[in-house]
Amino acid sequence: ETTRYVNEFLSPNFSHANMTVPLLLIVGLAICLAVSPKAPDLFEVLLLAFCTASFLRWQRMIALFGTASLWVMAQALQSRFGWHPVPGAGRSAYVMKLSIVILALVMAVAGLPWTRPETALIHQQAYPEVAVRAAKLNGVRGRLLNTYHFGGYLIWRYYGQRVVFIDGRADVYTGPVLRDYMTLCLGRPGWRTVLHRYGFDWAILDRDDDLCERLRLLPDWHVLYADSVAVLFVRDGPANKHVLTRWRKGALRLPPQTPLGAPPCGD
Predict the structure, then answer these.
(1) How many CB atoms lie within 10 A of CB 59?
(2) Which of 63, 120, 140, 246 is the most buried (most CB within 10 A)?
């Protein structure tokens, strides 16, 4: 059932732009094998066959295929140009070791978490960072409804405090939860029944979700915050009565430089 909704369980479609790198990897592998004077040994053949078959069956296996391909390509290039994995003595060994140290330092400065502030690690154009801050500032609580691809981020921000409805691990949610989520997202018959059955108290949704527009039209759901990425909804109910009281008085607490007046569901 998961394969009906999640592309990572499908075979790769090389006509899509996101498959450009794997396609180039396949071409590079073919070229390396063609120019190598030494044929791959049995281990390399079996490894490459298994990893390639896995990738062509499920595109989520790209990492496994890439690792095996790079290994075989390295062996082929080593045979072709006479490269050695361990440098000998002399200047070339010194240059290689120095290059490795410099590369490690560059990677540490550019990529490790302690080298940059937290806000620099989160792309506000992809995740509901500001919407979450607005929810925390106002003490929003209760059962959360969220967009599928926001789930992992929300788990990180609310770890030990809130439970998400769904996250990116579609194989974990296979069954009623995934079906109910798709019913809500696609507006299938009975979507309001699903919404009421779970008793959601608030929601953080992708601005472009159709569900965002449908929630906005319901009289008991209210937009507390909206930006170009996400919309924060709160439902009338005891869980967030204090928040809605503050909202109706125009005393809602908002993060700095985050206008509330952004259209809640995309124009």
Answers:
(1) 21
(2) 140
Residues 11-26 as b or e (16 or more Cβ within 10 Å = b): ebeeeeeeeeebeebb
- Residue linked to tokens 């994995």: 85
| Segment (H or E) for 34 | helix 20-35
Supply 68's token pair. 């095996």
Token pair recorded at residue 196: 């009421």
pLDDT digits (tens, 9 = 90+) for 138-197: 999 999 999 999 999 999 888 888 889 998 887 777 778 888 999 999 999 999 999 999
Nearest to 206 by CA among 163, 164, 149, 263: 149
Tokens (6 digits) for 26 = 């396949």
Question: Which H or E element spans position 225?
Answer: strand 221-226
Q: Which two tokens stand for residue 12?
A: 């790769």
Cα(267)–Cα(263) distance, integer angstroms:
7
- Report whether 170 contacts 177 (CB < 8 A): no
Q: Give phi and psi for 204, each to the nearest 5.
A: -125, 110
CB 154 within 8 A of CB 146: yes
The confidence score (pLDDT) of residue 161 equals: 86
